[in-house]
Amino acid sequence: MKIHKNLSLKSLNTFGIEATAAIYAALESEKDIMDYLDKYGLKTDSTFILGGGSNVLFTRDFNGVVLHIKLKGIKIIDEDDDYVYVKAMAGEEWDDLVKYAVNKGYGGLENLSLIPGSVGAAPIQNIGAYGVEQKDHFFSLEAISIRDQQKKVFNKQDCHFRYRDSVFKNEQAKKYIITSVTYRLDKKPVINTEYGGIQEEFKRMNIKKPGIKDVSEAVRNIRNRKLPDPEKTGNAGSFFKNPVVTEEKYEKLIQRFPEIVSFKLNNDYYKLAAGWLIEHSDWKGKAIGHAAVHKNQALVLVNLGRAKGSEVVHLARMIRMSVEKKYGIELDYEVNIL
Length: 338
Description:
This protein is α+β, with helices and mostly antiparallel strands. The protein folds into 3 domains: 2-69, Uridine Diphospho-n-acetylenolpyruvylglucosamine Reductase, domain 2, CATH 3.30.43.10; 74-186, Uridine Diphospho-n-acetylenolpyruvylglucosamine Reductase, domain 3; 234-337, Uridine Diphospho-n-acetylenolpyruvylglucosamine Reductase, domain 1, CATH 3.90.78. It contains 9 helices and 20 strands. The chain has helices spanning 30-40, 94-103, 122-125, 156-159, 198-205, 212-226, 247-256, 274-279, 309-327; strands spanning 2-8, 20-27, 47-50, 56-57, 62-69, 74-79, 83-89, 128-129, 132-133, 138-145, 151-155, 176-186, 234-238, 244-246, 262-264, 269-272, 287-288, 291-293, 300-303, 336-337. It has a 5-stranded antiparallel sheet with strand order 6-7-12-10-11. Strands 1-2-5-3 form a 4-stranded mixed sheet. A 4-stranded antiparallel sheet has the order 13-19-18-17, covered by helices on one side. The protein is globular. The model has no long low-confidence stretch (mean pLDDT 92).
């Protein structure tokens, strides 16, 4: 366990925002977590659990404790004729897990290629992209109780997964530290290519009989064209959630805005493309101070180099006001703002 005082967090958040943690602890094993909780305890109102730093925006110095979960390791723990069960520790980079699965021919995560962040954060946010969410192949996770340091296993039903949501953002928020996640992957993959321009990318790639490696490559190509590289341009990926509206609300919107981009859900609701709403509210490529809306994807807010977190928040609020005024829809943040 490594503990530091007044540590800069600039290199530990993909927005590249300068902020300082009063106390920073790097926890590299379950024993580190147990020892820390046993020795220091954890005040949830003054502690932030950091994973890959890809879903957080610091607006000020953090006058508390940042616990950086850095547990590493990926391994197969079980398999049968149809499935393989892959356990990844919470500190692994999500895309390293995707690469591991794809390279071994295990299907299920390939549409989630190149999503930044850690494995431990994936179920909290229920990350998703290109027609797939991590819950689709989630099997279980292990976590340590902050209250009594007991280990607990959560199955899929326990996690209450919803769109960009889970029990860990609601009733179990700040009660557990996730240490590992296990996914049930397909030995006989069924690929999903019906979303986000994957078919068009196959045509560019001259792929006629795609496998999971082709899907992963296509997704990477699309994301690299549309989205900024956090190592070059600070960002946290999608800043806003795609709003979900009732069928009644959707019908009223489509009468006024027939070109609105939407996706029918498996009930009487529609998911709207937040990026489309932002772009057609005339924000794409625009900047306020050192914060801007990305020129290729309006869903992404970027740090032009010297942005403060407060500048990004101001830009986000202006965007929300514009979208609500034009469409009557209030956008929710996907990023955790501190």
